[in-house]
Amino acid sequence: MNNASAAPRRRLTPGALATAAIVAAIYVAVFVSEQFIPPTSMLFTVLKKGATYALVAVSMNLLNGFTGLFSLGQAGFMLIGAYTYAVLTIPVAQRAVVYQYYDGGAIQFALPVLPAILLAGLAAAFFAFLIGLPVLRLKSDYLAIATLGFAEIMRSIFQWDKLGTITNGSNMLRLFPTFNDFNIRNADGEVVVYLSTFIPFLIAGVCIAAIVMLIHSTYGRAFIAIRDDEVAAEAMGINLARHKQLAFCISSFFAGVGGAMLAMYMNSVQAKSFTSAMTYEILLIVVIGGIGSVTGSCISSFLFVACSEWWLRFLDQKQVIGGWEVPLLRNGFRLVVFSIIIMIVVLFFRRGIMGDRELWDLFNEPRHRKAKEGGR
Amino acid sequence: MKKIIALALVMMLALTASAVAETVKIGVFEPSTGDSGAGGKQETLGIQFANKNNPTVEIGGTTYDVELVYADNGSTSDKAPSAAQSLVSEGVSIVLGSYGSGVSIAGSPYFADAGIPVIGISCTNPQVTVGNTHYFRICFIDPFQGTVLANYTKNTMNGTTAYCLAELGNDYDVGLVHYFKEAFEALGGTVIEETFPTGTSDFTSYLNNATAIGAQVFFAPVSISYSTQIVEQAGSLNVPYALLGSDTWDNNVVIEAAKGTNLSIYLSTFYQEGGNPEFDENFKAWLNSDSEALTNNGGNDMVAAVSAMGCDAYNVALEALKAAGSTDPKAVNAALGSVTYDGVTGHIAFDEVNGDALRDTAYIKTANTTDGVWDFVTVQSIAK
Amino acid sequence: MFQTVLPYLLSGISVGGQYALIAIGYTMVYGILRLINFAHGDVFMVAGILMVYISAAGVPLYVSIPLVLVATAVIGFTIERVAYKPLREAPRMSIMISAIGVSYTLQNLVLYFTGGLNQQYPTIPFISDTVTIFGATTKRVTVLTPVLTIVLVAVLVLLINHTKIGMAMRAVSKDFETSQLMGIKINAVISTTFVIGSVLAGVGSMLYFTNYTTVIQTSGAMPGLKAFVAAVFGGIGSIPGAVVGAFIIGICESLIKGLDIILIKAGITKSMLGLTTFSDAFTFALLIIILVVKPTGLFGEKTTDKV
């Protein structure tokens, strides 16, 4: 990576303009379609979950793709975020129902949604700071396995009966505000303006924009330098420990926010579901999108969610076309097809959908692009 | 031009065809994979059997074909939301299920948002129906089942110390253990309670724990896959106490594991084979005529309680559709509360507060380890 | 006190032996390729599933056991050739992602074939009989596992130290490029490693599933991760280290499940603390501690990174 890509950023490049236009168009499309298409359509499920996964995938990419730290702790940080959000926002009146085995729990107040989301991110970042102190010294795969272990430990702690008055033990947390509560209703309770998809898009969009800005700041360039060559970066005066810790905390912050969004999407939270399989899923999204491309992570999140929740669902059911029963189709076939696609991407299209290019690179003049690729 | 005419003709044909055969969609929200997959499949079998016998329903003077729409909730609360949403997007009028309380609770808000009523078949945790107007259920609930089991342990098995084991994060297990403990301690018994993480396969330590505290009863109301492991390992450890299960244990996979051991196993359930000989006979005949159904039932023609419950739930759903006179989910929801039905498992009616079934009997069964069948012991009820 | 702890020790030793057989596969592959073979736990699970299906087809045990071992070896070999070999020059992260992909694929394939339901593992006579030792009842496999594990490890160590292929393995794990220059057929060595690892995982699966008789697509994930932790704990690349690590982890895990009761019996605590919640997490806590305190593990050699 050389400086050519960063230098002309002061003036608006054609790429930046085109990107802004595309993003704006997507937001308008989401808003409009939400008003006219019935809310039961699978489209909105995919969009909501996709936005959530896009944020988490980008946060993982920041660490794995841009800083070169191979962390597999994403599910753990999402867990912290999801629990922080849920615990802080369950309405006081509902606490007796949710914490039924713990006499209504210890916390007897409820925060509004936005501060709770912010706190969810901060809580995840705080835990990242603590765990980062010892484990960030580890090299590639040791770091991966240590963070994976950390996520498993977190899962157990949140399930521990003795913390039940806060975490509700291993039981489900629910009845907190969800995406549907963003819809604006009139006095009769009928929805006037649908915002349940638009707001998650907005939250994810703001967070991803923040990450993109970070990547293009001095810090971001330092992260990339660390990824490309740790020793050289250190020789250039980059404080390795500090920058790694920073990247780790920031990534975890956004994973925490993503966790809160996942809680809102799922309507209920349970520590049990934040397994290492979830981390692997997100890692595969990052790989399919292209390690080191924010745009790629976003695109592949939506593709991944749409395929698994919607487009490929028919593979799980018997299909009869003109009296001929299609062979092989039964429960689980969707996942088989899915994993084969993933293996093909991993083995033969290692650069993923976008490689390390971004949306704006596609519109910038070729000279510019070549300079960027040459730098790798 | 020809093409356009042809296309128009085809479209007209399609339209008239759909006008002749109206269909109403009933969602089947059941696990067919995961820890509770075996139970979910048996429950689905009951629904399919009922659907085969009553494939149509008359709603508001028109005869509708009933189409079952399936969604696999994978026995986990994180897969339940997307399964529920796929049913909602299919436009079902009413949903049946699920086996397992956690998945029911996780799926519930999606049905609520779409105004679709649900009939719970064997989800016994009180939380499923509390505080909502769309979730009904036809089975008894855990405070009842826990009390029944506690009474039975105390009075018939003469137990004073019970060891309880639940899976972490499984609402069904944790809830039932909670109510059992409450009732058993009220009767003067001692309860030691432990939990195990999801995915555990080594239960020997837990079985040893129960031996160490001198328990007379080992109560583990866990999913089928775990109960199979527990029975198997208890058999080889030759444990000195009795195993006590709940409605999940009433499954031929579990009895298969118990066969040939000298364990004493008791459980409580919704229905006992022989309760309705006509149903049993027809159901078995159907299982034996359909190899896929037989496989889904675990390879033999034993009638599981949940199959009988599934059959009843389907028929209750048809009654609700008839009473509503419409396929609109909201109308069905409004009508469902006052539906009554005399089914295979007895009279079904819903209470007005939560939409729970008014039931006051549970069947106690014991494992016949020589023949590998569940033997009927007694009917337990508690004074309300 | 001893009578209270004994049953936990017994099951701990047995679990430890099974983890050891899986851990060897991890440690050997890591020693040579510097790759965490995330799919190894799933190979172990697939061996279990194969046994279920082969036995269901009515094949007698004296055929099915070798058949399963051969099939597992073939699977291990194929995975290496298809998913790892093309990535040998790629960054380490790519090959690890490929391993995760293979693990995902194996689990989904098994989910598809089994319909996502638990499969009952066939009973292997003799080793699943019940025996009594020091007043504790258990399956014979519990007692046999550690013995069999140690015998297999001894054979393996002999193989590595006294045969030509063993020498080649040691050379490759010391220096990949130089050994290639010396005329060692690197692909053959790597394949042999995968075959040995897979066969041991196959043996491990027979012992494990005889004890815990149901197999499902996720059965391999936790034992796999724990075996890996055992390998790291003992010093990755070191076979005796992996075995010692596995026994320590197995015993600790088993003791933690009974710790509440043991503590109450010993009069140290009055009430239950719910410590069984941490029976899995403890393993990972141990991992993080060892990585931070002594990253090379108990028996690992110090390696220096060259710039």
CATH architecture label name of chain A: Orthogonal Bundle
Q: Give the oligomer, counting copies of the same chain as homo and different chains as hetero.
A: heterotrimer
Structural class by secondary-structure content of chain A: mainly alpha
Could you say what the CATH architecture of the largest domain in chain B is?
Answer: 3-Layer(aba) Sandwich
Give the helix/strand class of chain B. Answer: alpha/beta
Residues in helix, % of chain A: 55-70%
The CATH topology of chain A is ABC transporter involved in vitamin B12 uptake, BtuC
Indicate the mean pLDDT of chain B.
Answer: 88
Helix amount of chain B: 40-55%
CATH superfamily of the largest domain in chain B: Response regulator
Q: Please work out how many helical segments of chain A DSSP would assign.
A: 16
Overall outline of chain A: globular
Compute the number of strand runs of chain A.
6
**CATH topology title of the largest domain in chain B:** Rossmann fold
State the domain count of chain B: 2
Shape, principal axes of CA atoms of chain B: globular
Low-confidence stretches of chain A: 1-9, 368-376
Largest sheet of chain B: 7 strands, mixed
Give me the strand/helix succession of chain A: HHHHHHHEEEHHHHEHHEEHHH
- Give helix and strand order of chain B, one letter per element, not per position: HEHEEHEHEEHEHEHEHEHEHHHHEEEE
Largest sheet of chain A: 2 strands, antiparallel
Overview of the molecule:
The complex is a heterotrimer of chains A (376), B (384) and C (307). Chain A is mainly alpha-helical and 376 residues long. Chain A has one domain (3-374): ABC transporter involved in vitamin B12 uptake, BtuC (Orthogonal Bundle). Chain A contains 16 helices and six strands. The radius of gyration of chain A is 22 Å and the shape is globular. Chain B has 384 residues and is of the alpha/beta class. Chain B has 13 helices and 15 strands. Chain B has helices at residues 2-20, 37-53, 80-90, 101-114, 142-156, 171-186, 204-212, 224-237, 252-258, 277-289, 291-296, 305-324, 329-336; strands at residues 22-30, 56-59, 62-72, 94-96, 118-120, 135-137, 161-167, 190-196, 217-219, 242-245, 265-269, 341-343, 346-348, 362-368, 373-380. In chain B, strands 8-7-9-10-11-14-15 form a seven-stranded mixed beta sheet, with helices on both faces. In chain B, strands 2-3-1-4-5-6 form a six-stranded mixed beta sheet. The longest helix of chain B is centred in the last third of the chain and has 20 residues, at 305-324. Chain C is mostly helical. Chain C contains eleven helices and four strands, in the order ααααβββααααβααα. Chains in contact: A-B, A-C, B-C. At the A-C interface, helix 6, helix 12 and helix 14 of A face helix 4, helix 9 and helix 11 of C.
